[in-house]
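Quick start: what a row looks like.
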Amino acid sequence: MSGISSPGFVRSALSRYTGTAPDACVFITNRYGKPSLRRAPAEAALEFNLSHTNGLAAIAVSVGREVGIDVEDVTRANVDRDVRRRFSATEIRTLESMPRGEQSSRLCNARAMGEFGAVYVVSGHITGQTDTMPLRIEKLFQEYDLPGSFAVASVLTLLAILTLIVKSRVERTAEAPAPADARTVRSA
């Protein structure tokens, strides 16, 4: 790891939750290499997950529940590479026949559906232990708790809208031309 995803950065971030100095945060790894904090048995289980790619990083922190997060590089080159690697020739032709703006939203929808299916299968679907918001919505809906399912769906929708707003602002900032130097002298 380097830069923002370095162990020093993670220790600094986690120390805010543990109330200890960053150097007191000691990592251990499980058999798959996932890091966690070494702690005394009586301490609250502070869980964290880190994801990073090409200068982007995210850390999620939770107490008493496992947490996961994923960051992906969605620049056009990486999206095109992933499409060629994962899609059939027919799917690629269908995607390429769409306007470029529509391609992104279709890929996002396909990804979301795939993620839901994967989470549904892999999570074990254990209520209160392996729930995600989409799984919780489905479970509430299947139990005929329509107000509950719509309430959780509304929160998830709000999070999605906020994420899209932030994404749009970040993209506009990245694409905006640099401001002209105020000291530039204009010739008449």
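That is the whole record. Strands lie at 27-29, 35-37, 46-53, 56-63. The chain is about 50% helix and 10% strand.
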